[in-house]
Design a protein that fits this description.
The protein is of the alpha/beta class. The protein folds into 2 domains: 4-95 and 293-313, NAD(P)-binding Rossmann-like Domain (Rossmann fold); 97-284, NAD(P)-binding Rossmann-like Domain (Rossmann fold). Helix content is 36%, strand content 14%. It is built from 12 helices and 11 strands. It has helices at residues 11-20, 34-37, 74-82, 97-112, 115-121, 147-158, 180-186, 206-209, 229-237, 252-260, 268-276, 293-313, and strands at residues 4-6, 27-29, 46-49, 65-68, 89-90, 139-143, 162-166, 189-192, 216-220, 241-246, 282-284. A 6-stranded parallel β-sheet has the order 7-6-8-9-10-11, with helices on both faces. It has a 5-stranded parallel β-sheet with strand order 2-1-3-4-5, covered by helices on one side. The radius of gyration is 20 Å and the shape is globular. The two termini are 38 Å apart.
Length: 325
C-alpha cells in the first residue's frame, strides 16, 4: 500500500517530485489518468491527479485526501457534488501563473503576426498575405483577473497595450476594470483566464462574441468548457473571429485520451476540435501552458509541501474552498 499515488505524472514531473519527496514516503506514479489505468479501487488512500482524471464516485469512502496538481479545482467540485462524501482536497494556486500568462501572450502575438501562415509559406519563401500586426496600441481584455489574469495584464501593459479587466471580484487596485459589454466592444484581443463554475459554463458563446468587433482574437488558457467548440467553429467560418488560440478544450478528458491512444475522435465536440486545427488562424496546444522548467520546479516543491503537510498534520496548506467567492 502506498502513502500516496500520483496519476498524470509525466516523466519530468515524476522525477522532479521524487527529488523533493521524503524517502520515508512510499509513493507510486503513473502517467495515465484514473480511467486509463482502470483500477476498481484506489492504490492509496491519498491520491494526486491533474485535471483529466475522472474520480469514481465509489472511491469516496476509500480516500482520505485528494491533491490536484493544478491551479483550478472545478473537477474537485464536480466530484464533491456527485459523491456522498466530501473528501478533503488540496490544490496548487501559485506555481504556474507566470508560465500560463506567457503562453497566452505567445498565442496572441503569434496570431497577430500570422505565424502559422509564415511557417507554412517558408517552403516557397512567399510573403503575400503575411502582413501582421503589432501588440503595441492594441486593446487587451482579460476576463478573470486572478493570479494568472493579473500576470497577463502586467505583460500586456509592458507591451504598450491598453489593458482592461473583467471580474466579479475587483481585488487589484491597479487594474482598470470595466463592465463586460463595454470591454467587449473595445477589445482587439480577449483572453479567458476565468475559473470554471456551474454558473459560467459556455460563457464565451456565439451571441457574446457578436458583441465584440469583427476580427477580434480569442485566447483560452483557463478551461475549455467556457468556450463552446461549436460556437468558435461557427464564428471562424463567418470570419467574425480574427484568430483563436486554445490550450484547453471542451470535453478535454475524452479528447486527450482519444488522441493519446491514436484513435479517431468520435464525439461531435472532438471532431469540431480537429476541424479547428485546420484553420490557418488557429493555434491549438495540448494543455501545456503551465509547463516550463521554472513552473515545474515550483510545482514539484509545492506538491511535496502539500503532501508532507497533509501526512504530518492531516490538513493541506492550500485547501480547495467549498465555493468560489
Amino acid at each position: 500500500m502506498y502513502d500516496i499515488f500520483f496519476y498524470e505524472a509525466f516523466a519530468e514531473e515524476d522525477q522532479a517530485i521524487k527529488t523533493h519527496l521524503s524517502p520515508a514516503i512510499q509513493a507510486g506514479f503513473t502517467w495515465k489518468t484514473i480511467q486509463e489505468l482502470g483500477e476498481s479501487s484506489p492504490p492509496a488512500k491519498f491520491i494526486s491527479t491533474r485535471t483529466q482524471s475522472i474520480f469514481p464516485w465509489c472511491w469516496a469512502s476509500q480516500l482520505t485526501a485528494i491533491l490536484t496538481r493544478s491551479t483550478g479545482y472545478d473537477h474537485i467540485h464536480r466530484y464533491w457534488q456527485h459523491s456522498s462524501i466530501t473528501v478533503p482536497a488540496g490544490y496548487l494556486p501559485l506555481y504556474c501563473h507566470r508560465a500560463v500568462a506567457e503562453q497566452a501572450m505567445l498565442l496572441w502575438m503569434a496570431l497577430l503576426r500570422k505565424l502559422p501562415q509564415q511557417m507554412q509559406q517558408f517552403q516557397i519563401f512567399h510573403r503575400d498575405g503575411l502582413t501582421g500586426q503589432e501588440s503595441e496600441g492594441k486593446t487587451l481584455l482579460v476576463v478573470g483577473v486572478g493570479h494568472i489574469g493579473y500576470e497577463i495584464i502586467k505583460l500586456g501593459q509592458a507591451l504598450g497595450m491598453t489593458v482592461t479587466g473583467v471580474d466579479l471580484v475587483e481585488k487589484y487596485p491597479d487594474v482598470f476594470y470595466l463592465k463586460l459589454e463595454i470591454a467587449l466592444a473595445q477589445a482587439d484581443i480577449i483572453v479567458c483566464a476565468m475559473n470554471l463554475t456551474t454558473d459560467n459554463v459556455g460563457y464565451f458563446h456565439y451571441e457574446l462574441f457578436k458583441q465584440a468587433k469583427p476580427g477580434v482574437i480569442f485566447i483560452n488558457i483557463a478551461r475549455g468548457e467556457l468556450s463552446p467548440m461549436a460556437d468558435l467553429h461557427r464564428l471562424l467560418e463567418e470570419r467574425w473571429l480574427g484568430g483563436v488560440g486554445l490550450d484547453v478544450y471542451e470535453q478535454e478528458t475524452e479528447l486527450a485520451v482519444t488522441l493519446r491512444q491514436r484513435e479517431i475522435p468520435q464525439t461531435t465536440t472532438a471532431l469540431l476540435t480537429m476541424e479547428l486545427s485546420k484553420f490557418p488562424n488557429v493555434i491549438l496546444t495540448p494543455h501545456n501552458a503551465f509547463n516550463t522548467q521554472e513552473a515545474l520546479a515550483r510545482k514539484s516543491q509545492h506538491t511535496v509541501l502539500q503532501v508532507h503537510q497533509f501526512l504530518e498534520r492531516g490538513k493541506f496548506w492550500w485547501t480547495v474552498p467549498h465555493s468560489y467567492y
